[in-house]
Amino acid sequence: MAAPRPLQGLAGRTVVVTGGTGGLGYWATEQLAAAGATVVIAARTPEKGQAALASLARRAPGSDARFVRLDLADLASVAEAAEEPAALPRIDALLANAGVLSSKGRQQTADGFEMMMGTNLLGHVALIGRLLPALSAQEAPARIVHLGSISHEFFRLDLDDLQATAGRFREFRTYGRSKLAVMTYGFELDRRLRLAGSTVSSIVAHPGFAVDELSPHRDILPAPKKGTPVTRAAYRVVGQGKDAGAWPLVAAAVDPRAEGGQYWGPAGWRQLKGAPTVVDAKPYARDPAIARPLWTTAEELTGVTHHLPG
Predict the structure, then answer these.
(1) DSSP SS3 for 259
(2) For 91-125, how does the pLDDT look when each residue is reduced to its tens digit (9 = 90+)?
(3) pLDDT surpasses 50 at 188
(4) Active-site residue among 175, 185, 235, 263?
């Protein structure tokens, strides 16, 4: 798949990518670095970070890339990790990509949050809240890109059970709700930024159905799944590689056509694969009656405020 236009001439721009050591995050960093951008990989494991940096050095020779340790499942780590990016001369985009899909039952973060909601939503809320003053103060307009998901179409948020403690724990339902919460927060963040007259914009993007098995090989950790000829053939019918799935995220971060409040994803059937474009999200992802209490709860749980009008 060709790169979205105009992914070139990014020298002088800096993009911070959470979870940039593997999957969509790695591919986004490679695509950005190859176009000349400085990339900051913010992720949990230094060993994986070094492997990702080594791969970038091979695939994008001469690129400027660095690693910052960030564990979104630990608010103390978020506070510490935010200090280094906040001190950069400029951040053109923060790609809030990192996330988890648990398959081992209900787990908790270091702060006692349900793991998927705590990592996918609350960890990023804390990071963004801490970086927002620097992003707002810099001369260059900044973008914040949130990783949404098709799974948001299958569930509704339960604000009375945000931590998934009631009834039987269902992994995919909890994951889908966490991604819907991310999207709702992302759209609400842009609305509040506009009210504040901020130059910062907030955009949501999703990769479609993107899998390792259809991606080119890279020497990163853990080693991406290769699959079998049969599974790869089946995936090609409805899906694409994570390299292609990263393009909507990258477009939202750097494409001049991208604007605050948009939702980017693949242009193909049911947004499963295809070239990046602006797509539709479910209307309830933009519902202010849900967004406002979610915003308040997220700030209260993280202890980090955005200081934006509501």
Answers:
(1) coil
(2) 999 999 999 998 889 999 999 999 999 999 999 99
(3) yes
(4) 175
235 is catalytic: no
Domains delineated in the chain: 14-207+246-302 (3.40.50.720)
Task: Give the β-pairing of 240-241 and 14-18.
Answer: unpaired
Residues in the chain: 310
How deeply is 171 buried, as exposed, middle or buried, from its count of CB atoms within 10 A (0-12, 13-18, 19+)?
middle
Sign, CA dihedral 228-234-237-243, equals negative
CA 1 from centre of chain: 21
Question: Is 253 in a helix, a strand, or coil?
Answer: helix
Report the side by side order of strands in the sheet with 263-266.
65-69, 38-43, 14-18, 93-96, 143-147, 201-205, 263-266, 276-278
Indicate the helix (H) or strand (E) that contains 80: helix 75-81
How many of the other CB atoms lie within 10 Å of CB of 282?
A: 15
For residue 66, the cross-strand partners are 40
**Contacts of residue 252, Cβ cutoff 8 Å, sequence gap at least 6:** 143, 145, 203, 204, 205, 258, 262, 264, 276
